[in-house]
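Dear Dr. L.,

I hope this message finds you well. Following up on our conversation about the binding site, I have prepared a predicted three-dimensional model of the protein together with zinc ion. For your records, I am including the exact sequence and ligand specification that went into the calculation, followed by the structure tokens. Please feel free to forward this to your student if that is useful.
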Amino acid sequence: MKLLADLHVHSRASLDGRSSVEALIETARTRGLSAITVSDHDLCTPLPDCKDLFLIPGVEITSANGHILGLFLDAPIDFAALGKFPPPAQAIAAIHASGGLAVLAHPFAPHKLAPEEIARLGFDAIETANARAMLKPGANEKARLLSQELSLPGTGGSDAHCAKELGGCVTEFSCEPSPAALKEALKAGAAAPSRSAPANGSGRDCPKSAASKAAARFCRAARRFAILPRASRAMCFTYKGELPCPL
Ligand SMILES: [Zn+2]
Ligand SMILES: [Zn+2]
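The resulting structure of the complex is given below.
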């Protein structure tokens, strides 16, 4: 049975997310999705019961070297033990301890891990189709080549920060309709990441919050007058969309 899953979605439990889980569910139904992962930044959002859509418990951990997705978690991550900005190896170990699959998120948009490190760290998969990364030329293609080089399965997800962006990229499965079967298919490399129909989100379609607009104005002014230290300027360059997560 063919199933479409969006394996990277933020709810408004994320600081930069805009939609409730209920709104995400409503939109996922209208876009023909069978499953979505709720992968909020550094927290495991409790999910409601949902009969006609698989809600896959997930997380997106901000490691010291970039974002790491945890998919199909059996239990919440122990963030008290993990701490803030953990080394990638610890983030991956925490995801595995919670029964999840560790996925390198949007590797080239941006990430701070060399391919040799990625190979060594024990990722279960690499996100090779990220709708927001589509805005960075070649990022998804480079991720796809990396996944081939390392013989790791690929995943696809919108990285939606509001319901409108859902389904911008998806993962196609051919398996029994159950979370356990989806997880096994992903592990086995039998799932195919792909870009969805253009009618779905294209990457950055969320309305900007007042805080985000103010931050963008601040960053523009900071760039124009070069008044900020280098680190802050880099942050402004990177975080020109919704704060605080660029992707
Ligand atoms: Zn994300
Ligand atoms: Zn991210």
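In brief: Confidence is low (pLDDT under 50) at residues 236-247.

With kind regards,
A. P.
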